[in-house]
Amino acid sequence: MNNLSFKLIILFILIIPGCSPAQQKADDFHSYAINRKADLQLAAYITAHTIQDQFSTEAGRREALSVLRCNGFTKVYVEVYRSGLVVPVEHLSNTITFLKNNGFEVVGGIATVPGGEAGVAQDGPLSWFNWQNPKTGADMKKIMEDVAPLFDQFILDDFFCTADTSIESKQAKGDRTWSEYRRELLTGLAGSVFIDPAKAKNPGITMIIKYPQWYDRFHEFGYDVATEPALFDKVYVGTETRGQYTRRFGFVQPYEGFINYRWIASLSGNKIGAAWFDHGDCTATDFIEQAYQSVLAGAKELVVFNFNDFLNGHPGHHLLRLDFEKLADLAVAVAKNPVKGVAGYKPPNSDAGGDLYLLDYVGMFGVSLVPVSAYPEKAEVVFLPMQAAADSAVADKVERSLNEGKKIIMTAGFLARVKNGEKLAKLAGIKYPLVLEKGSTQIVVNDGTVDSLAFPLQTDYRMVPEGAEVLLQTAGGNKVSFLLKNNNIAVINTHTFSQADFDAVGEVLLCPRQIGLIELPQQWMNTIRSVFANDHTPILDAPSRVTFQILNDSSYVVHNYNQQKASIEIQLKNIPGNMIDGFTGDTLPINGNALKIEMDLRSRIWILNKQPEKQE
Question: Residue 18: pLDDT band by 50, 70, 90 thresholds?
Fold first, then answer.
């Protein structure tokens, strides 16, 4: 064999489609994404209507292939039904073959929303099914039987829920609460309509359930996170927080994506899978911030909804391509050293009262908060919102934690509702019972001065100290204690949202308004953080909307989610040497143990003492 022939053979090996990614030079983004997919995989969800239209012509398939490749997707979710459209099996089969022949992993999907002749629409405020009517189950079961043989994996998009209040549902409900009735109904239908028919036609199929991001409302509409993960083979999680400053999708705080994923992971164990977010109500920065919180939560796959937005273009796509290497490096680090910190206890199917979505806001205070679904016996610091009162034995557990020298932070709502609350109130140095007295103020005391908030700060209870130290209180003639502390126990007088707040604006799922809790002055933020801190926690001096997530290797990821620059100072413990930004490699300025940084608006840094491992 001459030298020219040998070179041609090597060239042929390098360019054939089946070539190992490690053998290919990653000069383009698609090749690089293939090389890194073990660290972090990008996947696109394609809705039924786009499957029907885009993949029906040679030109459409060609465009789709180009867009998938240039955005680094290596996996595709092919939807079989949505809003009355059932994609023909032959077309699905041809589309799957086309995608697989071009190197993509293919997963099936379904959006169980009404339309056309499929199922029966609910009597309720949203476009969901009436699952009590047998026609809905029969129609969805038929679709599953038809498409299951085409796929190795299949996902239920986040509409397997109901708010139906029809006469037939009311009769079936009986004396149960709506939550009890709906959870029992849908848990049963998960098997009879989806899992069992699919596995009967295709025994090897992997069945996936995907939960949306509104975790504090799941149980009201039939999602039972205590039972469903055991039924399915995998569990995916919505991290679609979108725009925090706009009402369209509910003023959702960016930290919610992390909270939702880690909380569901605590219920799903090793079944936990991809994170899922979308473009709705997203600026470019909103879009990419969803990716970062998804990765920080532990996701190794990002499913982006939906592919039609990639066909039409969005400014966030450029940032996803540009930041993919940083995200993949962070995913490697998080897999080895997950985010740790204060344990926020929310039992499954627990009511939130006036603390709806409070966990998100505590994260936005700059507290490295990690949600758990079982009482965290070993945690050094435990946070108990009203949701934790659903655990009837929690008072005894709290007492044990205090006896072991652990820190406890609870909300006034928790203390008012919890069983044996009088015992905990005595430990907290607060008069019991707490008096229900709703308050709303736009001013707070800040270092002897009075600050006006952009939105009201609401409280639900009057907390009267009986031995507790008042750390924060509102201003004005009718001062309200906001934060009290007694030894290792603190109580914060919060109100985020209640059902009444949702009803007032006709909201069903997401945050109904902006609140003063996230607008508190920096001194208040620092005081609140101090009660969550322990001896090992770095001291953060920063405004609200600056998040501080601590990895288990004692590196830190800091996000500035504000609309303006933020000056932050971090008093670190035991600095071993030079600190760098793991995203850029830049050295960070340290004065003694203090790290002072000017953060641009909507920016992030990864503080660590060594370079993250780079993948070749």
Answer: very low
